[in-house]
């Protein structure tokens, strides 16, 4: 059974060094925050999306799934910008007007920045990311805490999925009433079941010498300097263009 | 005779609520053997294995490793786990990391191996379990057989002298079972002592050097497969049956189709070979 997570384990960049992915996503994120014009934003968005879907071969479902919720928030957040209202100082009357351009620009910028994050999240697994954080000397407390949260949410999701399946198989989700009942049962059983599972896992890990610390090693990956160079070169080009476009606007 | 590598003496264990898990088990495991713990559901196989690897602390009695009493301290348990590896029945209870490679590295790192040593052990174990190509896969995206092999790789990477397996072939299809047994045979060939629990009488009869029958939290009989199943006494009343290879031989004996002085074979293949040889003799 699969726990639902945004990382796509089949992506073609899974064996790439996380630093390459971080530089790609991070650089593009900077561009999407700083780019002055909508055209540059559009190009960054298209580059990130195409690279993630075509080169990294992330499933478009995963990518769209990651984009969906932030996109919703963006739309809602753009409403106040879209409908600008105020008091006209000349007539002293309340007025409102639609600022489609500003709202569109905001949504586009938000969408581009989100795409950068989703690109990183779909191509980089959490353990990889943690490895990267450790490599740049992020405090251990923070990484361990992230790992724990991740494991717990995973085990919780797995428990939900298997309990849901068990209920479905016994026709527990047929009528709306049965659904409510099933959801109640699920909620009531979730923590004890997760706890039981955690206990069994702890016992299993104890057999392998677990002493309270989860030490692991990731497969060794080498940073590919040509790839990193290419990524940075493309980003510098985009940045230069953005600067030129910014000057043109002035 | 040399000292047993692992030993339980009068081990008793009770679960919370007073449920008896083990009611005084005495059992010696000899170095290099393949010992089967055979018994019906609920007879105490899992409890015994967990007691032997130090996860459960006996209420009374003792567990000994190479003659030395196991101490339930950090150092004592560490020493025990260095020598005794355990494969639980449900591989999901032992796998936790984000990828197979990481998961297998967990045990050696816990033993205090250096990074270089750990990498070497992980790569060796993955190759032995035919998992090298799956190294970057998350464990939850594996089939049952692959999960089992991953868990076994995690144990093998710790290079234990004894490996305890709880129902190693349960939930595996025939092909995956055969694969797993071949891998275990390979480890056994390299000197690893194997103790496995099962209720599969055919497996125990064909594959074990020695069988201990468990019944109601006690060892009710212990001996070679021939001794255990020879007259059917040892398994009577314990919820088990005789292996089918023996059933065939026993069915042939009254009609004198199987000479009583001929030693019964242990595997289907051996049975077929024997029958073919007898047919050739009859034709002559
Ligand atoms: N966590 C537990 N709490 C209480 N009682 C338990 C627990 N685990 C096992 N028991 C009881 O202890 C006894 C021995 O169980 P054990 O799991 O060792 O049997 P088993 O031989 O491994 O059975 P199976 O073939 O079903 O795996 C059984 O009566 C069982 O009900
Ligand atoms: Mg059991």
TrEMBL record, chain A:
Membrane-spanning intervals of the chain: 22-55, 67-87, 223-244
Alphabetical list of Pfam families matching this protein: CbiQ
Single GO biological process annotation from the record: cobalt ion transport
Transmembrane recorded as keyword: yes
GO cellular component: a single term: ATP-binding cassette (ABC) transporter complex
Alphabetized CDD domains for the sequence: EcfT
Keyword Secreted carried by entry: no
Domain of life: Bacteria
Alphabetically ordered keywords of this record: Cell membrane, Membrane, Transmembrane, Transmembrane helix
InterPro entries: ABC/ECF_trnsptr_transmembrane (IPR003339), Cobalt_transport_CbiQ (IPR052770), ECF_CbiQ (IPR012809)
Membrane disposition: Multi-pass membrane protein
Subcellular location: Cell membrane
PANTHER family per UniProt: COBALT TRANSPORT PROTEIN CBIQ
Protein name from the UniProt record: Cobalt transport protein CbiQ
Organism: Limnoglobus roseus
Gene name, Swiss-Prot/TrEMBL: cbiQ_1
TrEMBL record, chain B:
GO cellular component assignments: ATP-binding cassette (ABC) transporter complex
An individual GO BP term: cobalt ion transport
InterPro entries in UniProt: AAA+_ATPase, ABC_transporter-like_ATP-bd, ABC_transpr_CbiO/EcfA_su, Co_trans_ATP-bd, ECF_ABC_transporter_ATP-bd, P-loop_NTPase
PROSITE patterns assigned: ABC_TRANSPORTER_2
Keywords assigned: ATP-binding, Cell membrane, Membrane, Nucleotide-binding, Translocase, Transport
Residues annotated as domain ABC transporter: 6-241
Record bears the keyword Nucleotide-binding: yes
Family affiliation: Belongs to the ABC transporter superfamily.
Stated name of the protein: ABC transporter ATP-binding protein
Taxonomic source organism: Limnoglobus roseus
């Amino acid at each position: 059974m699969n726990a639902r997570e945004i990382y796509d384990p089949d992506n073609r960049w899974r064996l790439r060094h996380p630093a390459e992915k971080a530089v790609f996503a991070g650089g593009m994120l900077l561009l999407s925050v700083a780019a002055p014009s909508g055209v540059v934003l559009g190009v960054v968005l298209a580059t990130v999306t195409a690279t993630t879907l075509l080169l990294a071969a992330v499933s478009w479902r995963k990518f769209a799934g990651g984009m969906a919720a932030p996109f919703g928030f963006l739309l809602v957040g753009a409403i106040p910008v879209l409908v600008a209202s105020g008091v006209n100082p000349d007539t002293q009357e309340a007025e409102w007007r639609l600022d489609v351009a500003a709202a569109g620009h905001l949504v586009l910028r938000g969408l581009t920045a989100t795409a950068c994050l989703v690109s990183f999240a779909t191509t980089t697994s959490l353990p990889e990311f943690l490895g990267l954080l450790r490599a740049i000397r992020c405090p251990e407390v923070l990484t361990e805490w992230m790992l724990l949260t991740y494991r717990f949410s995973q085990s919780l999701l797995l428990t939900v999925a298997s309990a849901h399946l068990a209920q479905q198989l016994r026709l527990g989700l047929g009528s709306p009433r049965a659904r409510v009942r099933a959801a109640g049962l699920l909620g009531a059983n979730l923590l004890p079941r997760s706890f039981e599972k955690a206990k069994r896992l702890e016992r299993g890990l104890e057999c392998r010498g677990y002493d309270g610390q989860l030490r692991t090693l990731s497969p060794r990956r080498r940073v590919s300097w040509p790839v990193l160079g290419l990524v940075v070169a493309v980003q510098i080009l985009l940045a230069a263009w953005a600067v030129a476009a910014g000057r043109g606007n002035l | 005779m040399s000292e047993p590598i692992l030993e339980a003496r009068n081990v008793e264990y009770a679960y919370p609520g007073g449920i008896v898990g083990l009611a005084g088990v005495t059992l010696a495991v000899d170095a290099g053997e393949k010992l089967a713990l055979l018994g019906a559901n609920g007879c105490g196989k899992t409890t015994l294995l967990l007691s032997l690897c130090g996860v459960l602390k006996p209420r009374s009695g003792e567990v000994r490793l190479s003659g030395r009493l196991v101490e339930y301290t950090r150092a004592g348990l560490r020493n025990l786990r260095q020598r005794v590896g355990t494969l639980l029945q449900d591989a999901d209870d032992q796998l936790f990391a984000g990828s197979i490679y990481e998961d297998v590295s967990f045990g050696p790192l816990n033993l205090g191996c250096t990074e270089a040593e750990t990498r070497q052990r992980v790569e060796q174990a993955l190759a032995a379990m035919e998992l090298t190509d799956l190294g970057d896969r998350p464990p939850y995206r594996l089939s049952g057989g692959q999960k089992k092999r991953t868990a076994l790789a995690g144990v093998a990477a710790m290079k234990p002298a004894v490996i305890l397996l709880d129902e190693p072939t349960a939930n595996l299809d025939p092909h995956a079972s055969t694969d797993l047994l071949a891998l275990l045979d390979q480890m056994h060939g390299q000197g690893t002592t194997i103790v496995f629990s099962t209720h599969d009488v055919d497996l125990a009869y064909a594959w074990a050097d020695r069988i201990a029958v468990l019944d109601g939290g006690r060892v009710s009989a212990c001996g070679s497969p021939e001794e255990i199943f020879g007259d059917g006494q040892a398994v009577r009343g314990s919820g088990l049956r005789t292996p089918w290879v023996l059933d065939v031989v026993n069915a042939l004996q009254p009609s004198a189709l199987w000479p009583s002085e001929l030693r019964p074979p242990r595997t289907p293949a051996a049975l077929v070979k024997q029958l073919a040889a007898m047919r050739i003799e009859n034709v002559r």
